[in-house]
Amino acid sequence: MSVNEKGETSIHMDDQKNSVSLASIVIDDRFQTRAAIDHAAIEDYIEAIRVTGRWPFPPIKIVSQFLVDGFHRVTAAKRVAADPETAVELRKSLQSIPCERVSVDLTSDNIPMLALQHALAANQTHGLRRTQADKRRSVELAIEQWPIESDRQIAKLTGTTHPFVAKVRRELYVETLPPESEPESTLDHPLVVETLPLESKPSSVPEGSSGGVETLPPQLEAVTAPVDPLKVETLPPKAKQHVSGSSDEQEPSTEQLVKKVRSIAHQHRDKLVLAIDDYAQHKPNPKEQDRLVRLVQGVSLW
User: I need a surface site. Which of 183, 192, 235, 291 has the fewest CB within 10 A?
Assistant: First the structure.
């Protein structure tokens, strides 16, 4: 830009190449390496623009139209230009601002990757000092874009150290792991031994050692022992009952109980008659003897 003899300003082609329209700048969060915007810094930049009445900062950097360096400066300029109280001359001066254009083939598909490379390199040696959160975000963006690159290469690209990159990579790996499915609990199944194959038992047990088998309760040994159903049929009733694990006996019917009582009563009827006669001889008591006779008669009716 130069001033002629009449005091008019003219813009040279070199100035046009080294400036960019403020409205045409594309702000994309993919290339924002700051973890958070520093609003206090933006207010300071706004004040600096108003005090000087122009753009007082170093050039920003753009790849194609993507902003890769100068997010706080551009935000401040946009706010000043949008303020209706801003002087007309200042607003006009901010229509285009100084920039550094990165040479790029506009037909290439690698523009976003190239833009990220320049964004990661920004603020390493100038601008607002980076916080640990800013460095971490830079590393995360780089690992996401180039996951197979070494820690040293990522550290060189982001202006950090390879131990820091390794730490961030490990934490990212843990965060992306799917939640582990809880193993099926066997606490609700008391007969867990049934699921063990027979081959898992020790082939030989040293003499005097239980081998872990004798410590099982008798109930588990009875239930878990392999039983051949064909052999069970040949076992006596008590053995069958032990194998099946059931201790309930079949209850006799009422008819069977009656027959059993009758059999016992008839077997002892004659003994009762002899006992009554003996009683009458030693202790004559007509009433008691009569009662005993009726008892014998009652047994006979059965």
Answer: 183
d(CA 36, CA 45): 17
Cα 103 to chain centroid distance, Å, stands at 46
Rounded to whole angstroms, the Cα distance separating 206 from 200 reads: 16
CA gap 25, 201 in Å, rounded: 75
Separation of alpha carbons 144 and 151, rounded Å: 13
DSSP 26: B
Are the C-beta atoms of 75 and 36 separated by less than 8 Å?
no
Four-residue CA torsion sign, 122, 124, 130, 135: positive
Tally of CB atoms within 10 A around 81: 18
Higher local confidence (pLDDT), 285 or 247: 285
Percent of the chain with pLDDT over 90: 42
In the chain, the amino acid numbered 40 is: A
Phi–psi pair at 252, nearest 5 degrees: -70, 150
Domain range 7-129, CATH architecture: Alpha-Beta Complex (3.90)
Q: What angle do CA 176, 181, 183 make, to 5 degrees?
A: 150
Alpha-carbon dihedral 34, 37, 43, 44, rounded to 10 degrees: -20
Q: Which DSSP state fits 22?
A: G
280: confidence class by pLDDT, cuts 50, 70, 90:
low
Cα–Cα distance, 80 to 96 (Å, whole number):
13
